[in-house]
Design a protein that fits this description.
229 residues, mainly alpha, Rossmann fold, 8 helices, 41% helix, 10% strand
């Protein structure tokens, strides 16, 4: 879209989608998994509704992965200021219903910021949508394989894997997340290894497409019906 098309759109609708991501290690998968998934999901969900999707915010909060090359993190204060600026800017333009499609669990502080921001902007609504653990998506994941986690099969879609990268065939036992959360970056890398928190590294694409279809529908329904009138 160009600016004139956005202006025309705002004459009849005030919804938009803002994907949030992170650039960080995902084992054998792309460093951009958490950017690719929320942005593609937002487009797939919003396209039939004609709702604009803004570019994904590609850097988030991932200090624990600093031991892995290519993992880029922001400081918490920087990140919250950035999210506030984005919401302020969208509001100034005329958007009043903003769906945040979040692709990275570490970005959770942005959800609290959104609540604070709405209290200061009572004419606006912000929905914070962790797409991967939304009720129906998570149910589909669990029905497929209960051993599912960061950098495992549940993030391995055709659009997140890399060409000419061979994936292990074995299933990795689920790691101790409580221990992980207490480790500094170097020790975390030593404990975690290639980056998978637990689970197989890949499952059939037909199973992944079934999960994706649920994710698209669940996100689209939020765009359509997830607002207070």
């Amino acid at each position: 879209m160009n600016w004139m098309q956005v202006e025309q759109y705002l004459g009849g609708d005030d919804r938009c989608v803002l994907p949030l991501g992170s650039t960080e290690q995902h084992g054998y998968l792309s460093l951009c998994v958490d950017n690719i998934l929320p942005e593609k999901l937002a487009h797939d969900a919003a396209a039939p509704l004609g709702v604009p999707v803004f570019p994904v915010q590609p850097y988030g909060l991932t200090p624990y992965f600093r031991g892995y090359p290519g993992s880029v993190t922001l400081r918490l204060a920087t990140y919250l200021s950035l999210i506030r600026d984005l919401l302020d800017s969208l509001h100034e333009q005329g958007f009043r219903r903003i769906l945040i499609v979040n692709g990275h669990g570490g970005n959770a502080p942005a959800q609290g910021l959104a609540g604070e921001w709405m209290a200061d902007h009572p004419d606006a609504q912000v929905r914070f949508h962790n797409w991967w653990n939304a009720p129906r998506v998570w149910a589909q994941v669990q029905a497929t394989d209960t051993n599912a986690s960061h950098a495992s099969w549940m993030e391995n879609f055709p659009w997140t894997r890399l060409e000419d990268v061979a994936l292990p065939q074995e299933e990795k036992a689920a790691l101790d997340l409580d221990r992980l959360r207490l480790l500094p970056p170097k020790a975390l890398r030593e404990y975690l290894g290639e980056g998978n928190y637990g689970g197989r590294f890949q499952r059939p694409d037909s199973e992944m497409q079934a999960i994706w279809d649920v994710a698209v529908q669940e996100t689209r329904e939020l765009l359509q019906n997830g607002w207070v009138k």
